[in-house]
Specification:
alpha/beta; elongated; 729 residues; Rossmann fold; 3 domains; ten-stranded mixed beta sheet; 10 strands; 9% strand; Amino acid/polyamine transporter I
Length: 729
């Protein structure tokens, strides 16, 4: 047997916070922030910093929302976009993003070289570049763990450089300023253009790359212990701390130097510090850490695309060694970086790096906008953001692109579209669920055709489409509100009138009016009437016919209001529903209490002993929890999971099972109740609720179901899965 691959997993601090913070606190902070203040004034510089970080923080919030709703794999933003909009969209961004990330490594190496030459001007530039490349590649090739530990050292250096700046302020550096802190800048330009003038957006374009880098931690998604937690926490903390550092540093440099010094001397922060050599070390450390993070992150993007067969030789690229390191992807990345180093001057293509960052930011915000507006029940992020957040992130990202360089922006968009077209032709097989089906539904016939090509069951796009048999429209009026709340906001109701030749015409009018009532209550509804004397045959024939429709029923609603109906036909309907993979919901209303105050819903879980393990298939429980969640959301109620066990050991197992179920199913504010008792005895003193939900067995005992209503003194639902629902989706 071969050795098991073991992969070092990282926490929030090492895996996300450290690389993200070090990438943001880069060379621009040390060598260009003073120039930004000299041109824009302190107020202008602060505004530039605020706008730049507004773009990144809104995108980070959107990214946090989406990462807490999916089980993200390797590849960071590529994985997020692919799992939401499909491999074609993810790859169209991932491929150019990977190439631009490789270019970024080279740019950071060149930045390191410039800092080194300021100390040792006689050293050969090519040798410096080559040595730095070899060191960075060796660290990244060895393992991500070594790269993270190296970044800890660099963080200590950068923190030390900031400390000597604080010491400079303490010992009086902030008494030398001629800058009017409350005056807007004059934007005189730079040495390179002989101070022939500049502008706010030109200065913004110079500074903005400093605020990028929020994906450095997300790129490590495949090697995080808990990406759902670490990516939001680590990224947002890194952005918040770096924002405070930039704002404070801008104030310090404005108070510590004259306008002329700020404009003419890119090393002003170094020279005004308490101990310049330590700040120079910070400059070198910042460029080195950014290059290292980009090297590690880009190889993970390539590995993820290889794993999903987006690229040729995908199987080889998606391979890892015995410790789980993507060595093949790292090898290709090393070649890419080395080739870009041969260009010697990346000024012509450098803006592409920033553009692909911004396109990625825009697409992440688009993902959240789509998810929020589709209203699918599968979108249950643990980190929720207001609807205006992704819109601000999207708009500001696009505006920033065209402010910085309209031509390069159009080229970047064109490259992305071309890559998307190529990937679309490859007919990639998506190994995970995405929300495309939900999106396609919104586009009618085109969506129907496109969705039919997808090979998966579309568990993430699940929503309740109820088939409601109607013999007498009056009987439906008593459960109208309940049915509406099961269907809202994105479900549908198909009313199936079942009448004889004598009353079919009257029933058609009644069912039509009932359907319109659902429509007025924002529930999509359609109807038809079948002429038959046999209730069960009518329901079963309708279900068989609906199997060929695009939006077919996935739940049959049966009402126990009429004993004759369920004693004669319900068993046949349940049996046929199982064959057709349609869920069944049997409603038994308490004659006195109805649905009570609609504040608490009990979902009963059978004793699963001896196996209380959570798996992708949790048995006849998915539909019960999904229906409970729909009612909880529309009633503003609470859910309580209830089970009865035989002993203390089973109680511990059941409690652990429920805790894991609540976490993985993303069910906030859900209570648990585990009892050691006999079910028949406990049901008489069941925990108080307004609705009790039980699993429905293949051959139900209707007398038992009636007894549950009497003994719980509540309305009861008896639910059987179709097998196509999944609460974990």
């Amino acid at each position: 047997m071969g050795k098991t691959k073991t992969l070092k997993k990282f926490g929030t601090f090492g895996g996300v916070f450290t690389p993200t913070l070090l990438t943001i606190l880069g060379v621009i902070m040390y060598l260009r922030l003073g120039w930004v203040v000299g041109n824009a004034g302190l107020l202008g510089a602060w505004l530039i910093i605020i706008i730049s970080f507004l773009i990144t923080v809104t995108t980070a919030l959107s990214m946090s929302s989406i990462t807490t709703n999916i089980k993200i794999g390797a590849g960071g933003a590529y994985a997020i976009i692919s799992q939401s909009l499909g491999l074609e969209v993810g790859g169209s961004l991932g491929i150019p993003r990977y190439v631009s990330q490789g270019m970024a490594v080279t740019m950071y190496i060149f930045g390191f070289r410039e800092g080194w030459l300021s100390i040792f001007p006689n050293h050969p530039a090519v040798i410096i570049d080559l040595v730095v490349f070899i060191i960075i590649y060796a660290i990244a090739y060895k393992s991500a763990d070594l790269a993270i530990r190296t970044q800890y050292i660099i963080m200590a250096v950068i923190v030390s450089s900031l400390i000597v700046i604080v010491l400079a302020a303490y010992y009086g550096s902030m008494q030398n300023s001629t800058v009017d802190l409350l005056q807007w800048g004059r934007f005189p330009g730079s040495i390179e253009n002989n101070f022939s003038g500049s502008g706010f957006w030109i200065v913004f374009a110079v500074f903005f790359p400093a605020a990028t880098g929020i994906m450095a931690g997300a790129n490590m998604s495949g090697e995080l212990k808990d990406p759902r937690k670490s990516i939001p926490v680590g990224t947002l903390w890194a952005i918040g701390i770096s924002f405070l550092i930039y704002m404070s540093l801008a104030y310090w440099v404005a108070r510590s130097a004259t306008t002329e010094e700020l404009l003419n001397n890119y090393n002003i922060i170094i020279e005004k510090s308490f101990f310049p050599p330590l700040v120079i070390a910070g400059v070198l450390g910042a460029t080195f850490s950014s290059a290292l993070a980009s090297m590690v992150g880009s190889s993970r993007i390539l590995y993820a695309m290889g794993e999903h067969r987006v690229l040729p030789a995908g199987k080889w690229l998606g391979n890892t060694n015995k410790t789980g390191q993507p060595r093949n992807a790292m090898f290709v990345t090393g070649i890419l970086v080395f080739l870009t180093m041969l260009l010697r001057d990346l000024n012509a293509v450098a803006p592409l790096v920033t553009m692909f960052f911004l396109i990625t930011y825009a697409m992440l915000n688009i993902v959240v906008i789509i998810e929020q507006n589709l209203g699918l029940i599968s979108f249950r992020p643990m980190f929720k953001v207001a609807k205006w957040v992704p819109w601000i992130g999207l708009i500001t990202s696009v505006l920033a692109m065209f402010i910085i360089n309209p031509t390069i922006s159009l080229i970047s968009v064109a490259v992305t579209v071309i890559v998307y077209g190529i990937l679309l032709q490859r007919k990639l097989t998506t190994p995970f669920e995405d929300v495309r089906s939900g999106l396609f539904v919104s586009f009618a016939e085109w969506a129907a055709k496109r969705t039919s090509l997808l090979s998966h069951r579309q568990e993430r796009a699940w929503k309740p489409n109820l088939l409601i048999p109607v013999r007498d429209a009056i009987s439906i009026k008593g459960v109208f509100s309940f049915l509406k709340n099961v269907a809202l906001p994105q479900g549908s109701i198909k009313l199936l009138g079942i009448g004889s030749k004598n009353n079919a015409d009257v029933l058609e009018n009644q069912v039509s009016d009932l359907s319109q009532s659902f429509q007025k209550n924002k529930v999509f509804s359609s109807w038809t009437v079948i002429r038959t004397e046999n209730f069960a045959d009518g329901v079963n024939f309708a279900n068989q016919a609906y199997q060929g429709s695009f939006i077919k029923p996935n739940i049959i609603f049966l009402n126990m209001i009429n004993r004759k109906s369920y004693s004669e036909g319900f068993s046949e309907i349940i049996e046929e529903a199982a064959r057709l993979q349609i869920g069944v919901l049997i409603y038994s209303q308490h004659p006195k209490y109805g649905l009570g105050q609609r504040q608490m819903i009990n979902v009963w879980i059978r004793n699963r002993a001896p196996d209380w393990k959570i798996s992708w298939d949790i048995g006849n429980l998915d539909l019960s929890i999904l229906v409970a969640y729909k009612l909880k959301r529309n009633w503003d109620a609470k859910i309580r999971l209830v089970t009865v066990v035989e002993n203390e050991k089973q109680k511990v197992q059941a409690h652990k099972f429920m805790t894991g179920l609540i976490d993985q199913a993303r069910l906030p504010k859900t209570e648990m109740a585990v009892y050691i008792d006999n079910f028949n005895e406990l049901i008489k003193k069941a925990p108080s609720a307004d609705l009790n939900i039980f699993g429905l067995v293949p051959n139900p005992n209707f007398e038992f179901m009636e007894r549950m209503v009497d003994e719980t003194q509540t309305t009861c639902l008896f639910i059987r899965d179709s097998g196509l629902e999944n609460i974990f989706a």
